[in-house]
Amino acid sequence: MKSILSTRKLTPEQKQPLWEKGIRVTEYDSISISPIDFKMPEKVEHAIFTSKNTVEQLKRYNERIESCFCVGKKTKNVLEEIGFQVIAWADYGKDLANIIVKNYSDRKFTFFCGNRRRHELPNILKENHITFEEIQVYKTALKPKKFEEKFDGILFFSPSGVESFCLENNLQDSIACCIGYTTATEAKTHTNKIVVAEEPTIESLIDKVQRSEL
User: Quick one: DSSP state of residue 112?
Assistant: First the structure.
């Protein structure tokens, strides 16, 4: 029987396709997310969100945010469900930054993020002289855990998840199954055995694993 380690807890619905394929699933949370105190501006014209974790910390400030730019379709859906207006979105931070540079360079932004946020988006904004303020609203902590068992595949959902796992383990012959190319970039520092989801969603990653030869 093939075995998978997921570096975040999955729902029964998410695990079902793997079980049906005869894949045994072990899971744990390789990182933890916790809110941090921050000063919310009285008014935000254009907010940038790069994850659902950020949305969770800002949802009570619905009235203060006029419009949003975000990374990820699910982040977009969550924002719209709770009443935010989404102007533009992209699958990756680099792509969103390029959309902003191309179409919204005259606007001022507030970039809400975590303490371990990626550099691509803010670097592109800085290089192109886009005005923005960065506010950290949550903290990501690594939760390394040692595994004696060797798995056919490891599911990774963020660069921090890869970093956390590799603090106590090595990938050896396991395939790194990555939710997106940003996560895969981190995985490439540890292995060349990588598969990447067609779309950066959990469902797409699971579908990719089902169809891969682990």
Answer: E
| CATH 3.30.200.20 for domain 2-30+145-211 | no
* Beta-strand relationship, 86-90 and 108-114: unpaired
Summarised one tens digit per residue, pLDDT across range 192-212 is 999 999 999 999 999 999 888
CA atoms of 67 and 116, how far apart (whole Å): 24
Protein fold of 35-140: Rossmann fold (3.40.50)
Q: Are 121 and 96 in contact (CB under 8 A)?
A: yes
Single-letter code of the amino acid located at 126: K
The DSSP letter of residue 59 is: G
Q: Which residue has the tokens 């974790």?
A: 53
**pTM (predicted TM-score):** 0.92
